[in-house]
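Researcher: Structure prediction, please.
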Amino acid sequence: MKDVKMPDFVTYCRNVFVPVTNICRNKCGYCGFKRKPDDEDAHLMHIEEIIPILENGKRAGCTEVLFTFGEYAEEVVEYREWLQDLGYSSTVEYVAELCEIAIKIGLLPHTNAGILDSSRLKILKPLNASLGLMLETTAKLDAPDMAHNDCVGKDPALRLDAIKAAGKLKIPFTTGILVGIGETLDDRINSLQSIANIHERYGHIQEVIIQNFMPKPNTPMSKHKPPAKQEMVQAVLLARDILPEDVTVQVAPNLIDPYLLVQSGASDLGGISPTTIDWINPEAEWPSVSNLQKMVKSVQLRERLPIYPQYIKKGWYGNGVKELVEKLADGDGYRKT
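Model: Predicted structure follows.
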C-alpha cells in the first residue's frame, strides 16, 4: 500500500442543494429521501420555488448548485402528469432549463441525475460544470432485505456503463462508493478498481466519494449499524492506494469527523451549503467554513469550483458555463477570492 502523506491543503465547495423531485423508481433499503406520489411531502419543485433558493445561494457566496432527483421518476405515472402539467416531456429537459436559469444567476450546475445514456448526457453537458453518479458498489445487493432489492437502477453494470458514457463525452465526473450497505471488503476493492479502470481509459473522474451509510428511520435498513471509524479509515486508505493520483478522494464532513480520514488520504470535503440542508441526510447539519477549518485542525482549506482545476485547464467544461467558469476561477483553477 502507498505511503499516505498529509495534504498541503484540503478542498471544499460552497453550494446550494436543490432536490428537484423526490419521486424515484428505485426502492433502496437505506433511502429516506424517496417519496410516493400520494405522500404529503412528495414534490416536483416549480421554477418559482427554485429561483429564490438560487438567488440566496449566490448572495451567500456559493458557486455551485447541486441538482438532484430520483432516478427515472418518469416511470411513475403521477409524476409524468406533474411534469407534463409544467410543460415538459422529461426530467432532463426540465433540469436543462433549470441549469440555464442557474447560470444566469451566477451558479455553476452540477447535476446528479441517476443513470443517463449518451443522448441525455449530451443535453446536460453544455450546461453543467460537472455531473455525478454514485456507483455505490459493484456487489448485487438485490436479495430480500438487502440494500438494492427491487432497484432496477442499482444494477452495477448499468451504473458502470453510465460512468463510461460520461467519459466518452469528456464530462468531468463525480462518483463514489457507499460503505456499510451489506457489501464485503472484496466488494469495496472491486468497486474502486472498476472506477480506477474507467478513469485510466477516459480520464474524466475528478473525485471519488467514500461515504458512510447512515441508517434512516422508517426504512428497511433502519436498524443496521453504520460502519465503524476504522472501516472508513480502511476504505479511504484503499481508495488512495487503488485510485490514480489525479483522482481526489472525498469524504462528507457532516456525516463523519473528517480529520482521521484526511490523515488516511482524503483531500476533499465536498460541497457544503450555507443556505440549504443536506436533503439526503437531513439530520446531519453542514458545518460552517470556520467549523470546517477547526475540524481539519492545522491543514489549510482551499475553496474550489464544482469542476476541478485540471479540467478547467483542459477546457472540459460545457460552452454554456464557459464564461462563468472563467469568471469564478483563479489562475490555478480554484475559486477566485
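Model: The chain has a mean pLDDT of 96.
Researcher: Thanks, that helps.
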